Structures are given as structure tokens and as C-alpha cells.
Amino acid sequence: MRILITGTTGYIAKRLALQLLEDKHELICCVRDTNRIPDEIAEHPLCSFIKIDFLSPEPNKVPINIEVAYYLIHSMATDADDFESLERRCAQNFKNLVEATQCKQVIYLSGIVNDHSLSKHLKSRLQVEETLKSEKYALTTFRAGIIVGSGSASFEIIRDIVEKLPVMITPKWLNTKTQPLGIRDVLTYLSGALEKEALYNSSYDIFGPEILTYKEMLLQFAEVRGLKRYIYTLPVLTPKLSSYWLYFVTSTSFQLAQALVDSMKVEVIGKPSDINNHIRIQPMTYKKAVELAFQRIQQNSVISSWKDAVSSGVFKDQLSKHIELPQYGCFKDIRSKTIIDEEFTLNQIWGIGGRNGWYSFNGLWKIRGYVDKLFGGVGLRRGRTHDTYLEAGDPLDFWRVLFADKKDKRLLLFAEMKLPGEAWLEFKIVKDRLYQRAVFRPKGVWGRLYWYMISPLHAFVFEGMINALVKPK
Question: Is 466:434 a contact under the CB 8 Å cutoff?
């Protein structure tokens, strides 16, 4: 079957693509930035890629001979004022393009929208569903609540809270009820709906077997991890204070924290249907989903993470616009060292950040992360998706990977911390030498003052880092 997938670099689509390829389907994957094509599918013989932005697509960009299309475009983290209109325009453009093809079915993953008091994002999801309906193809909509899996936003946020706080003073929305669903079950629904005519022009709530409050989810998560946790809820925490609480305690951005608090105030209970009979699935319990997620983490085989999304940070452009280091109007710190063991140095570079730290003056890196978080930045808590593997688009603490190629022996990072300017950090091996370049392009007087204030620290931090990269212990 020839299938079109949108949102290819996103949390759901990246995993779904791998599952569909295992089932021998031919995929046409839509990407906004060709530098972010996932390595796992980049060279697959059944995969092809088209560069397209559904906010302003080119006509006739989508191949005419597709049979099914997945609409998996959505960003919880956007802070755009006209968020809902952008979502609607994106869906309408997708619909216009797909209606000009031979597509028989569009499959759309939405959110459960049964409560009368919907959040802004759930209203937008419902609006997108209405926009996607067509007389030219059949629409199948799955409405999911909280999705639980390694790397999912809800999983990682709950993990942050549970593993860091033995005693929690929490907002009252922790008593809101929901029905969490494992990521593996989500993928089974999405793949199992292919060309099932009984599901055409229908929408289904998909959910796990339990109704849990967010407080119960935290406590059950703690049980799986073998931790004892105490939770006390306070009614005095307003939505804004709750957003700040979530932002400072977890690795989420403030925009995503606001969106989550807005959604978590709403009870998300699914409407029963016969969908499990059609798909032949018995969804797993919440605890089972958490256990399977940690199996992935322990095996260092997390396929995708919500933090991979560019919108999880402050990055607004395509990676390609920043992949060349600027030469003029910049401050630079350039160091080089002779390499003793090239394999060791490459492994050190590809393992930098996250749990491994930055190899030199980690305390200063942590302080910089706290300061960044205090001023509304992403801080260091995002860590990294894999301990030893990097690809373009990955988050790396408060950096974003722009380019990562071990064969080319080059890693390029772009700063997503709060800065009065733009910053790059590059590691590149040429012959038997490692070149480490820090480049800062200031904005105005404050940018220049910032560089002059922190440049004395570079003599310690950057020198110690390059020494650790080239000298095996």
C-alpha cells in the first residue's frame, strides 16, 4: 500500500513509520526540513521524502497515486497568538492537496473532546477534524487522551516529578480524571485502521482500561519505580502559578506547561464504542505501559521523544538556515588539540551532555541551566534522547543539534538558552586534530556586554572540555 505520512519527525509519526515499514508498506514522508529526516528511515528502500510546509504548500506536491494518508501535524508547545487559525489553515491545505490524489482514506489522531469545557488545544483538534472531512476521501479519526510511552511528553513530565520530588505540594488539577493509553496501543489503532471500510467517516475515542486521576498516575508511576511518594494538593494554586510550578519542576517549556495545565483542568473520559473489536486489541494498563517504557529506556532504544520537536525549545526556523557558522560580526572562541585516539574522541563528542555532562566544570553548566530556566529558557533538564547517538534536530540540554555526522567527524549545536544573540558550538576533526569552535553573534550592546562578561570563564570551561575530549583517562 502507498501511504502518505505527515509530521514525519514527530513523536507519533516517527514510530508509526517504522511499524508500517515492517508491514512492507511504501511510505511517502512529508518533512519541512530535509536536514531532519530520521536516520532510522532515511535510507530505507520503501521510503521516499517530499519537502513540504503545509502552511504554504506548493501545488501538486503530493504524489497522485497515494492510497492512504495520515494527518499527524500538531504542536502543543506553540505560543502563536493565532494558533487556531494556523492549525485550520494547515489542515485545509493538506485537504486540498490530498483531494487532488487517488487517496481513499485519511487517518487523523486527535484528542478526546467530550467535556463541555474544552481547552484551547482540544477545541483546535476538533476544529481540525471538521476541516479534514471530505467527499473525496473517507476520514477516520482516533481521539486519544494521555499517551504513555518512552519519550512522550506526559511520561517524561511525570517522570521528572516523581523521581525528583519525594514530597509534592501540587495544584488541585491533579484530581482531574483521565484514561491513559500506551503508545504501543496507539500505534496498533493507527496501523490497524488501514483501509477498514467499517471505520470510514467515523471517529472513535481510544483509551486504556482504567480511569485514573493525575495523582493516581503519579503514585502508580512511583510504585513501578520502587519509590515512596507523598502528594498534597492545594486549591490556591491558580492556572498561571500551576504553569510555573510545572515549568520549574519538569523539563517542559513554559508554553507547553501552560497548554498542559489548560488541558489537565478538563476531565478526559472516553466514550465506549466497538473499535476494539474492529482493531482486535485489548489496551494495556497504565502500569504496564510505564514498565514497557522503562524497558526501552534501559535498552537505550527510545525511538522518539516529544523534546525532538523543534517547538519544545525556542527554535523557530529550519535547521538549514543555521547550519553554516557565521563569519562576520561575531565573537569566537576557537581551540584545537592533537588527537591521541580518534575513536575515543568521537565517542566522547557523541556522548556529550545529558547524564554524561560536559566533561569540565559541570557545576558552572548547571548554574547556567538554572539561570536559563529562571528567565524562561529551556534549561538543562531536557537532557538528550539517546546516551550515545545524535542526529539533526535532537535536543541536547539547552542546545539543538544542527548537524551530526560521525563519518564527516563533525557535530554542530545551536543554542536554545536565553541569550542576547545567537550561539553555535562546533566540534570537528581534521586529520589528527580536534577543532572546537564557539561562535556568538550578539544582538545590540547587551549582547556584547554578555560576551565580555562570560569570556573569562571560557579559559576554564572550554579548555577543560577540549582536553577531556582528546585525552583518554
Answer: yes
